[in-house]
## 1
Amino acid sequence: MPTTPNCLHSNLDANDTTFALMSYGALQIGRGVRDNMYPNLKLQIWRTGLRQNRLAQMLNVDEATLSRIVNGFRTPNATMKARIAALLQSDQAWLFQEGGPQPAKEDIRPD
């Protein structure tokens, strides 16, 4: 069983992605969290090793505001989406895709 990582990982497979989301709390049941609002955002925060409080500082927003965005209780405006995507060095459309986690373009390996 893998351990909780604390650094950037670029070669995750489906099992690692599931573990990452479970480790980060995206798949917690019965906690009042909208589990599949922005799973790619949660995954990318985990991958980069950033903590939400540090990302909030970098965005110059309150930690509670960022938490509400990450957990789907607040919808970020276009400017905030662009700022988050830039800091996480990720495609904005992929980060804010709703539903289950999707592989990023750079994670898709040809068969």
## 2
Amino acid sequence: MDNKKGYSNIVDLMRDVVNDDNFINDLESHINSRRISRMLFSMRCRSGKTQNEVAKYLKWSQGKVSKFENTPDDKYKFGDLVQYLDCIGIDMQLEIPGRHKTHLAIIHNAVFKRERQ
């Protein structure tokens, strides 16, 4: 009999391992605050560029690229975001979100619009 349990994400795994609701809530909040970061990391990987290549192109240190890819969603500077996306071949369009549209949705839409072209 196979007793392996599958998890869809790290928060579900930690709920089984840790019996601390405050920790779980903090973990979930931390993960959710970096949704753009995860998307940027994924897009860079799909572009085939390393952090060192991005750093050289942007005249940043590799450490700055790493920190940039782990920035909380509400801390990104628009200019840095545009430069980063340009480096990995993504055209960014500015869209002012309505009440129900998140910043993540805006970036997501821009990426998939570019991929369809």
## 3
Amino acid sequence: MNDVLAHISGINFEMFNSICLYLQVNMLSEIVDSNGKQICSEILDGTATPFPSTIQWPYQPNPTLEAWHVWSNTISLLYTKPSGV
């Protein structure tokens, strides 16, 4: 998800990154369904919990509601198509 850097910066990137740390994800493939065609709904609505990982991640408490909004908006903008397309 490094392409996010081309679209957001500053505090918005920090908020986006706080969600990545909280969920313990760093690739798009980790947040889509098994077909790779849809982003898991709990990822966008803020109800997701950290994924199990064998990597040692830094502790990140549940991010703010504002951070979840930045995350959801950014993921939707970059990786989803409008309905009916």
